[in-house]
Amino acid sequence: MTIIVAVAHSAEGRAALAAAADEARRLDTPLVAVNLGLTPLDATALASDQQITVVDRVGRDDRDPVDAVLDEISDRHATRLVIGVKRRTPVGKLMLGSISQRLLLKSPIPVLAVKAAPEDDNDIEENGGD
């Protein structure tokens, strides 16, 4: 049993990482973070005894982030995926191509979708996430 978390460099990514860490501790299972950004993942907010494996992207030309997450699910026989989602307007919901939306639709395992706290909604996304 493994939990995979897709982590963007955003408030939603931080919320997903925290929720996934809680799930992994609760279920006493390994946690794998797929870093969707292009900078190192800061996991210092997790408990010091939290075991986490980080899978980093190599660069902008690296494979599609959704494929990277789905590959990790398959390779590690994961049982749960945790993603961060944005609060979106009705017009925003019509937009296609969202990483979170694609993961929700393509994931072969249950998905826990986490929203960021309202005060974090104004964070500017850096790279590769939603």
TrEMBL record:
<dbReference type="Pfam" id="PF00582">
    <property type="entry name" value="Usp"/>
</dbReference>
<protein>
    <submittedName>
        <fullName>Universal stress protein</fullName>
    </submittedName>
</protein>
<dbReference type="InterPro" id="IPR006015">
    <property type="entry name" value="Universal_stress_UspA"/>
</dbReference>
<feature type="domain" description="UspA">
    <location>
        <begin position="47"/>
        <end position="115"/>
    </location>
</feature>
<dbReference type="InterPro" id="IPR006016">
    <property type="entry name" value="UspA"/>
</dbReference>
<comment type="similarity">
    <text>Belongs to the universal stress protein A family.</text>
</comment>
